[in-house]
């Protein structure tokens, strides 16, 4: 029988050791009055739960360096910091997501660095400082496929050890995976999460050959 975790108040979810807030939580409602994310950063998406489950089975090194690209509310960043004491930089193009991420990091008692940036413009030298680069639901437009391929290639070329991307299974995501197989080791597998509810999708692990 799985351990029963009692959430402290209404509209709080517990998943993989971290507390997350729904759009109806009082703190989120208050933030939404002043901050309106515009690039799908309006909640924690189910692919984030896939990533948490995956990283629960394939552990990160303790106190490693992690970058989350397209972080949104930063659920994965919070998970990595809390479970593995990772030093995390959360990156997103939309500055309006960071107040939400700050609330999640605060209620989980972790510190997350953040940067407002277009991930297609991150330099290889900077990317190479992170052992693991993660992202979920970041390949939802055709125009994002090649920039993501270029980012992954730059990161691995400059010293990143692995890139892990979660997605519900969009055609654009599969196109990204196909392009990465030309020069890199790509392991694509179907995955599911069980917390806070069941979610199904895909995880790809990319490394140098």
Task: Provide a concise account of the structure shown.
The protein is α/β, with parallel strands linked by helices and 209 residues long. The chain has helices at 26-34, 46-57, 75-84, 98-107, 124-127, 145-157, 171-180, and strands spanning 12-15, 18-21, 65-69, 87-92, 113-116, 132-136, 162-167, 184-193, 199-208.
Q: What global shape is seen?
A: globular
The H/E string reads EEHHEHEHEHEHEHEE
Instruction: Tell me the number of strands.
Output: 9
Proportion of residues in β-strands: 25-35%
Order of the strands making up the biggest sheet: 5-4-3-6-7-9-8
**Main structural class:** alpha/beta
CATH architecture, please? 3-Layer(aba) Sandwich
Q: Count up the helices.
A: 7
Quote the CATH topology. Rossmann fold
CATH superfamily: Vaccinia Virus protein VP39
CATH class: Alpha Beta
- For the CA atoms, what is the radius of gyration? 16 Å
Report the end-to-end length measured between terminal Cα atoms. Answer: 41 Å
Tell me, rounded to a whole number, the average pLDDT: 88
The main β sheet shows up as:
7 strands, mixed
What ranges have pLDDT less than 50 throughout 5 or more consecutive residues? none
- The percent range for helix content is 25-40%
Whole-number count of domains:
1
Can you give a write-up of this model?
With 209 residues, this protein is of the alpha/beta class. It has one domain: 3-Layer(aba) Sandwich (Rossmann fold), CATH 3.40.50. It contains seven helices and nine strands; from the N terminus they run ββααβαβαβαβαβαββ. The strands form two sheets. It has a seven-stranded mixed sheet with strand order 5-4-3-6-7-9-8, with helices on both faces. A hairpin with a 5-residue loop joins β8 and β9. The model has no long low-confidence stretch (mean pLDDT 88).
């Amino acid at each position: 029988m799985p351990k029963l975790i009692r959430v402290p108040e209404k509209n709080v979810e517990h998943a993989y050791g971290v507390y997350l807030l729904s759009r109806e939580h009082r703190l989120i409602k208050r933030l939404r009055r002043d901050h309106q994310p515009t690039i799908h950063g309006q909640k924690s998406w189910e692919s984030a739960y896939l990533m948490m489950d995956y990283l629960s089975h394939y552990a990160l090194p303790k106190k490693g360096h992690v970058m989350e690209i397209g972080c949104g509310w930063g659920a994965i960043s919070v998970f990595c910091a809390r479970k593995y004491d990772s030093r995390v930089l959360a990156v997103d193009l939309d500055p309006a997501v960071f107040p939400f991420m700050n609330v999640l990091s605060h209620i989980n008692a972790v510190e997350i660095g953040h940067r407002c940036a277009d991930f297609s413009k991150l330099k290889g030298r900077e990317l190479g400082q992170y052992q693991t680069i993660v992202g979920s639901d970041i390949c939802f437009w055709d125009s994002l496929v090649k920039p993501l391929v270029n980012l992954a290639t730059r990161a691995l070329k400059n010293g990143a050890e692995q890139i892990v991307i979660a997605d519900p299974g969009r055609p654009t995501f599969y196109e990204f995976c196909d392009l990465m197989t030309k020069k890199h080791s790509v392991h694509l597998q179907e995955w599911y999460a069980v917390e806070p509810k069941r979610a199904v999708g895909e995880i790809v692990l990319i490394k140098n050959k």
